Amino acid sequence: MPKRMTLLGLFNTSGPGRPIDYLDPVTGAMEALRILGLREQDMALMMGVPYTSKMLGRPKIYERVPWATIFGALAGLSTAILLTFFTQFHYPIRVGGRPYWGTAAAWIPIFELTMLGLVLGTFFNFIWKNAFPSTQPQIYNPNINHGRIALTASFDARYEDDVRRAMLDNGAEQVYEPEKKPL
Amino acid sequence: MLADAQTKFKNLVWPHEDDPKERLLLDPIPQEEMNQIMLKPMLSASPAYWLVVALLAGIVGVCLFGSWAYMIRWGMGVAGIRRPVGWGVFIATFVFWIGISHSGTFVSAILRVFNAEFRRPITRAAELMVTFSLACGGLFPIIHLGRMWVVYFMVPMPNQRQLWPNFQSALVWDLLAITTYLISSTIYVFLPMIPDLAMARDHTTGWRHALYKFTSLGWRGTEYEFHYLHKALNIMAFAIIPIMFSVHTIVSWDFAMTQQVGWHSSIFGPYFVVGAIFSGVSAVITVLLVVRRTMHLEYFLRPEHFDALAKLVLIFSLAWTYFFFNDFFVEWYGGDWAGHKLLNFQMHGGLAPYWYAMLFFNIVVPILTLWNKRVRNSPIALFLITIGINIGMYLERLVIIPGFLQRNRMPFNWGEYTPQWPEVSIAVGTVALFILLYLLASKVIPLIPVWEVLEGQLSHSRRRIGKTVVTSVAELE
Amino acid sequence: MSESTADGHRWKMVIDLDKCTGCQACVVACHAENNVPIVGGEEVAMGRSRHWIRIERYWEGEYPDVKARFLPMLCQQCGHAPCEPVCPTFATYHSDAEGLNVQVYNRCIGTRYCANNCPYSARMFNWFEPYFPSPLEQQLNPDVTVRGRGVMEKCTFCIQRIKRAEDRATSDGRPLEDGDVVPACAQSCPTRAIHFGDLTDPHSQIHELIESQRAIRLLNEQGTDPSVIYLKGGESHAG
To answer: Which of B262, B370, C53, C171 would bridge C74 by S-S if both were Cys, CB 3.0 to 4.6 A apart?
Structure first.
């Protein structure tokens, strides 16, 4: 198995007269790397500004409706139905001359707990998909908050010089082999 | 003919170019400079700040917790509540705080859904208000209880008696709704905060670094992270809007679902929601004006933002007037004798000073002033007007809650309500608590979402159409 | 709904307003029977008087033709009680066996929502710890709880007397008879203005009184279905 290595290239997103939207260096570098044979999943970007995948020339990240959201909503719905109907089955208490199982009044807990489940499901989906919180040391460069964008490429170690040249020719400010450090 | 035209055009002026740099999203500066503008007031604190914090902590300790302890020791009787006024200043202040909590959700969720670009620098400061006002308001359902040490009876947990709370009671709905809203809005303020916390993590050391490292969850700004963040925010923004509407509707049903004269009105749901947004957006303006001045965030918070928010306040003042008039006019025209006695009480009786003051602050002042651009661009005027609006909205809750309870269908049981010192003290204490929490948070939580401002600046550009250059906004998603 | 379930009782009280002199004997008797404390002049001035049954006095007419009308007001034990659905902890609910609106002191957390929703203002709240100046603490009724502060209380139709009568009837091996249960207020009324009986008992005197032409129920248009019926005719109505 040939040894793989990673290089990180730091690109300035501010061009002449153009703050933060000068993406030609990094997109050019990615094109050059694609010509060298790197696949999309071998390249990763880190940025401080949310550029869209279209701007970066990357394939759209496609995702179906997050099942965690739906699952959360259903969990909330069942909790609400349990609370409003089961409790009166378990210990029926008559109030106000009303029936034990009044559906009109049940809508409110049903709505609230379904929405709570939906929100919690969305949140946990976000946490889970990103593998947060990550306490391991990670590859990172704080300069992404200083108007830079970082491109990491993972490839067969024999092509190190080609990759390095591809990045530098396209205007990388720095190219180095990153270490995993605690954030 | 020529002389005619010359007269007509004599008084016109060539339209001058608005300086594009006046607008935040057309005035980009290097990212690091933006970070520093936001971090600088967070990382340093002047002696005046600590003095104010100490003063507020003192007020909270004495006025809020001290009076509350006194009331727990001696009984609810030290408050001014009496038969038939079972709810007084405590519940009025509770509804007031829940109303203020609608501010942040309106600004961050509804404006996000409508792609209103002026929301970008103000979302976080507004959303923080939600959490703290819910914290302050959430104290009151415990404070006003006769036996607060058994408040857990309201929680559906298995117990020895196999008893459950009453899910048909509006107070239990309150519990569910406010809990849902608190959790949802905390998540909704936390999610977009993560990139800013990561930025703060990179710029700090020591305990701050450890705190931001923990709370930013390991954010690195990869494409996937931003993708999932946007996805979560889109779902949350759409989800939290019906939650927001439902919360204040349910709070209004505490009153509307009763038989009490004046309370039993089907318009209370939308009336209270509109009133809440009205009072909340005004509170956002008040808080932002103070934040802008004391934290030197003039780069981020421009006159355009306050102008837009003030226009919103004007719209909601008109909406509130519409709902108020619906409630009032319908009762006046076709109400029963008890309703008429109550209206008499509001217009000519003991409630009159509060009622007229409420109308003055909520209707007269905003409608007469906020249409004027100069007023909207004047910080002092906006500060006074929005404080006045919140005074007016507090008076509205006082009129509706203890005020209406003083009249009912059996005239022998009418009563006068006078708030006593523990009630006033606790209400003042919660205001101090809100300001204190906000002050403390402003030193730890980055108040401006810099990445959202950058995203906005990315999408704004200037392009030429004909003889002029106009601002153009790109659709990013 | 108050006439619905099978083998329970349906207690009704009939108060004859034409016989009521406003003497307040019922008020005093209720205090004695149900351990209702005295709250003191200051509290009463604030509107916190604590009487499970109170005499409401309304003035009618202009001087010199003024008349005082007396209305004994107590918990109406409504069939569709507005106070019951609003309690978050089920501290007040409708007892199917007795057809009464019962108050569970131990479960009450003191939100006072029920008091706000009662159109008759019949519910009382314990604002402070109850104080029985000596030697009043020696005449407390052992059958009735002494409520602590922070709980709601109201007239219970002397449920302790109902229960005692039921127990005695069971141990005697006979059904409950009319006249077995006499609440304190009915017992003490010098003009016999207050009558009490079980609607499910076909021999009860209550039936006749309820069907009287003078019978009214207060605020029944609110849909509360009260169990207290007032007989009001005034001078014009022969009865």
So the answer is: C53
SS3 for C213-227 is CCEECCCHHHCCCCC
Contact at 8 Å (CB) between B154 and C89?
yes
Q: Which of C153, C74, C71 is nearest to C115 (CA)?
A: C153
Backbone angles phi, psi at B462, to 5 degrees: -115, 135
Question: DSSP states of chain C as a string?
Answer: -TT-SSS---EEEEEETTT-----HHHHHHHHHHTPPP--HHHHHTT----SSEEEEEEES-TTS-EEEEEEE-----TT-TTSTT-TT--EEEETTTTEEEE-GGG-----HHHHH-TT---EE--S-----TTGGGG--TTSPPP-TT-EE---SSHHHHHHHHHHHHHHTS---TTS---HHHHH-TT--EEEEETT-TT-THHHHHTSTTEE-TTGGGT---SEEEE--TTT---
Q: Domain C11-231's class?
A: alpha beta
Disruptive mutation site among B24, B174, B227, B472 for chain A (greatest number of A CBs within 10 Å): B227
In Å, how far is A106's CA from the nearest CA of chain C? 13
How far, in Å, CA of B330 to CA of B335, rounded? 7
Q: How confident is the model at residue C1 (pLDDT cuts 50, 70, 90)?
A: very low
3-state DSSP call for residue A46? strand
CB contact under 8 A, C121 and B416: no
Check residue B207 and give its pLDDT.
93
Q: Give chain A's domains with CATH numbers.
A: 4-62+137-176 (3.30.70), 67-129 (no CATH)
Q: How far is CA B235 from CA A50, B238, B248, in A?
A: 18, 5, 21
Angle between helix B170-190 and helix B223-256 axes, rounded to 10 deg: 160
Q: Do A126 and B232 touch (CB under 8 A)?
A: yes
Interchain CB contact of C110 with A (< 8 Å): no
Q: How far apart are CA C85 and CA C83, in angstroms?
A: 6
Give A-chain residues touching C96 at CB under 8 angstroms. 94
DSSP code per residue over B393-421: HHHHHHIIIIIHHT--S-GGG-------H
pLDDT band at A157 (very low <50, low <70, confident <90, very high): confident
| CATH at residue B96 | 1.20.1630.10
Q: Which domain holds residue B315?
A: 83-156+163-417
Chain B interface residues facing chain C, Cβ-Cβ under 8 Å? 74-77, 80-87, 144-148, 150-151, 153-154, 163-166, 168-172, 175, 254, 257-260, 405, 408-413, 415-416
For B60-117, how does the pLDDT look when each residue is reduced to its tens digit (9 = 90+)?
999 999 999 999 999 999 999 998 999 999 999 999 999 999 888 888 899 889 988 8
Residue B308: which pLDDT band, with cuts at 50, 70 and 90?
A: very high
Domain count, chain B: 1
**What pTM value is reported for the model?**
0.93
**pLDDT tier, B18 (very low <50, low <70, confident <90, very high otherwise):** low
Location of structure tokens 């993708």: B227
* A16: contact with B, CB 8 A cutoff: no
**C238 pLDDT higher than 60:** no
For residues B347, B352, B358, B364, the Cα torsion angle rounded to the nearest 10 degrees is 60
